[in-house]
Amino acid sequence: MSIQTVEIKPIIPSASKNFWQTYRQSRLGIAGLILLLAILLTAIFAPLLAPYDPKSSEGVGAGQVYNAPSAAHWFGTDDAGRDVFSNFIYGARVSLIVGFFASFISVFIGGTIGIVAGYYGGRTENILMRFTDTMLVIPDLPLIVVIVALTRPSLLNIIFVIGIFGWTTTARMVRSQTLAVKSRKFVLRARAIGAGRAHIIRHHILPLVMPILVVQAVLVVSVAVLNESTLSFLGLGDPTALSWGQMLNYAFARGAMSTGAWWALVAPGIGIIWVVLGLILVGQGLEQVLNPRLNTHHLMPSRPTIKSEAAARSGEQVLLEVRNLSINYINEGQAPACAVEDVSFTLKEGELIGLVGESGCGKTTLMLGLLKLLPNAGQIVNGQVYFKNKEITTLSDDEVNKVRWRGISIVFQGAMNALNPVRTVGDQIAETIIKHLPDFDSAKIPARVTELLDLVGIAAEHKEQYPHQYSGGMRQRAMIAMALACNPEVVIADEPTTALDVMIQAQILELLDQLRKKLGLAIIFVTHDLGVVAEMCDRVLVMYGGVTAEYAAVDTIYNTPLHPYTQELLKAFPDLTKPKKKLSSIPGYPPRLDDLPAGCRFAPRCPAVFDRCRTEQPALHELAGELHVVSCHLVEAIK
Amino acid sequence: MSQQNILEVRGLKKYFEAGRPRLFSRSTRRVHAVDGVSLDLRKSEVIALVGESGCGKSTLSLLLMGLEDPTEGRIIFEGRDITHLNDAQRKGLRRKIQMVFQDPYESLNPTQTIEEIVAEPLQVHGLATSRQVTDEKVKKAMEDAGLKPAEVYLKRHPHELSGGQRQRVVIAAALVLEPEILLADEPVSMLDVSIRAEIINLLAELRITRKIAVIFITHDLGSVGFFADRVAVMYLGRIVEIGTMLDVLERPQHPYTKALISVIPVPNPRLRHERTILQGETPNPIDLPTGCRFHPRCPVAIAICKASDPSFVTLSKTHQAACLLLVK
Fold it and tell me: Which residues of B touch A190 (CB under 8 A)?
């Protein structure tokens, strides 16, 4: 029901185990981590690993410069007869120290500027961001070279200069994340509590900006290592600290090229590539953990349906028949979650059926399952769906496509998110027609779009407008027009009025009822609100924890319900005819689909629970007479 | 002022600038979000503010919280004018007026634990004097908000709780400061119907056990029934009808109130009834209609409604409505 607006997932302490599990899935991230750890350990334990003292030419005969790699000198020797391998190991220390400290300075400056600009806004933001833009267009490397050349080339100076020129990207990213966090309701709530700016920044902004800072810090280290190497190569490095760049500089300046001593150049080169590659890969791995959207696979084909024996069908002529449908969500390494279990219902032409249940009871999964639009983890494990006597769960994707929209269409909840903000509403409706009815005469499309809009009560002049120019109610009407584009026989309305005002809700309900009469549409109305359904439905299916609780004609559901859940739901509903009556609520919460109770799923909250309910799942009891199906042990006595 | 009024609102207005209609045009266009609201709130009274989106009810709540500055009018809390206060002056006051927000998924910081969230107001106000005091107050507030036993929830994060539980956390974080007024802005509209009842019952209980006055803002007249003492119906920045709960629900006088009541879904198919469905939506508060603001959508409007802006007609000691048809 809630709409996620965060770009980056916050690091939640208790999720640290999760963090590693997600990170592990990124192979490149793991490779990067190994590369980085190897070079870090090498740098830390340099005195133990290096075979020679980097500064002395001990063990090498005088004049033995540029010796080729050998067993004694794995990477050969340099112009002064020193061991290149030992220099390489010690060089890692200098390069990494510069990289990490400079990155720390950059991220600190960038983070501070970004947060202050984003949070304070107004003139402060203007000044800070224009300053950032100016810094961004100045070519930083030449500037660094000039400044280092003018000052004493000590290691500290180099760290400082590289650090204060590498913060611009961080500042910009942090600012936009701060803006996003600032507009969230919990910041407003903190202000309402009375919290000051410092408190809000420390407790509310910083924790949510942190992930960006971490990723940026890692990436900026690689830039700093490269910058230091460049400086040293140009002869601007600290002569007392032998870094990889310094090694390149010496080798290049002292004739390594002309003597063919490639090893003196290759060794530091490998070091630089090694570190930069490692850091970039680690950055990529971190991003995958912190921004989970990168690894959702919405476009992957869904899991194949498990074919099951079809039960005998009632001879009745129906438009849509769902028989014993069960849908599981499968998460690798975990028990499958039963989102929908053994649900059956039928729908005739022009009928309106209400599908009622709390959030997480499986109603949306059931609707997506009907059209095989389940997310990748979802799988139909049992049952059939007949649309005009054709079984559709086992059809191929291409064949189901012919049913989608042309036979059965969906009005999704949250109309703003379902419309493309940069295209006119008319265009989007036309696109739907083109996509699903390729044979439609293109000259007639504009007239058809006008006709569809007219059908849902939108004047033709709004055709060329964009979704943001529409009000909430009009957007929902546009969504209905889109669902009607290909003359479907069944429309699934998934919470079409949730988040709308009562008056607009009444308008939409009236519209759906009119359309049903005018076009002979069959409608499945999905909602958590029993009151809405009572106004217009023929039959109601109440779902609880993935199973059918009760299924009957609308009058039976409201006046003689037999399932305790239906009874409790009705009591929780405010009744205007008795405004003084206290509302009763159902204690507890619906079960989690991956952790269902052993017996009846409603047992933990049921006021009429007895021993048997806790161990045995009740069967679907069909009562004699008019259609009435109840899954409750108490009904057996009545039968 | 009357001794029992804890909060008095007088002629409150808030206009936002909406940019200029044309480049180089002198006149700025203004959004009349709240346009002259007067209201009294008594100690431990529950008053429901009802209206469609765009009627100004959310802006009004931000004004009352001091999160927006009013353009005109006065807000008086316990006899003291609090309309324009600086941050330092307002801080002490914040303890007295707390707010519950609409969306419990958005109004909690996902990185904090429940304990941190509920203890935060105490830290902000320097009331977290010792670990023991803080723990006790946090626990009490959580259990009063129905999170029992508190220990189960302390170390959890918001994403581990259901919508109803999160809304209870928001309420606990408001209760911990022992406020005298709770401003609840659509506290149940994002929740399932089955959960709504328990949050409303909780608020009803608090006004009895803690003597808290509640301003309950909603678009759904149906949900205010049993626990509101008085109901104020807002349309386009103004209150159009105000009275006791029974005055408004059983004897509505303004055509807008009547329409709002008629569209409340009745959970009984045998009582399917004629509904007065108003066409269109609340007009844009930049270009206000002339005369009565409701006349373009009013099912019973007459000629005079276009020309004359109605003022309140007193129908009884407790009941007032602003409609020209009542002037007779």
Answer: 109, 120, 124
Residue A297 maps to a domain: no
Taking an 8 Å cut-off on Cβ atoms, the answer to whether A528 and B157 are in contact is: no
Q: Which domains does chain B have, with CATH numbers?
A: 5-96+179-253 (3.40.50.300)
pLDDT tens-digit map of A145-162: 888 888 877 888 889 999
Per the prediction, chain A carries an average pLDDT of: 85
**Residue of chain B whose alpha carbon sits nearest to that of A559:** B268
Identify the domain boundary among A270, A290, A310: A290
Please tell me the total count of domains within chain A: 2
A48 and A121 within one domain: yes
| Residue A573 touches partner B, C-beta closer than 8 Å | yes
How close B51 comes to chain A (CA, Å)?
A: 9
CATH number where A139 lies: 1.10.3720.10
CA proximity to B255, closest of B274, B242, B266, B241: B241
Of residues A104 and A638, the one with the higher pLDDT is: A104
The alpha-carbon gap from B243 to the nearest alpha carbon of chain A, in Å, equals: 15
pTM beyond 0.80: the answer is yes
Closest CA to A591 of A579, A607, A576, A602: A602
- The answer to whether A528 faces chain B, any CB pair under 8 Å, is yes
A347 and A410 part of one domain: yes
Could A11 and B111 be called an inter-chain contact, meaning their C-beta atoms sit closer than 8 Å? Answer: yes
pLDDT tens-place string over residues B261-318: 888 888 777 877 778 888 877 777 788 888 999 999 999 999 999 999 999 999 999 9
Contact between B111 and A5 using a beta-carbon 8 Å cutoff = no
Binding-face residues of A in 148-207 toward B, CB within 8 A: 184-186, 188-196, 199, 203-204, 207
CATH number for the domain spanning A609: value is: 3.40.50.300
Q: For residue B178, what pLDDT is reported?
A: 93
Are β-strands B213-218 and B181-185 bridged in parallel, bridged antiparallel, or unpaired?
Answer: parallel
Give the count of beta carbons closer than 10 Å to the beta carbon of residue A5.
12
Average pLDDT of span B135-163: 91
* DSSP class of A608: T
A606 contacts on B by Cβ (under 8 Å):
none
At which residue do the structure tokens 């509403």 appear?
Answer: A425
Check whether A298 has a pLDDT greater than 60: no
Q: Are A284 and A406 within one domain?
A: no
Q: What's the token pair of residue B241?
A: 């009808």
Question: What torsion, rounded to 10 degrees, do the Cα atoms B36, B38, B44, B46 define?
Answer: -60
- CA neighbours closer than 13 Å in the CB half-sphere of residue A516: 23
CB contact under 8 A, A535 and B225: no
Residue A521 lies in a domain: yes
Domain of A255? 25-60+74-290
- Give this complex's ipTM: 0.85
Structural domain contains residue A306: no
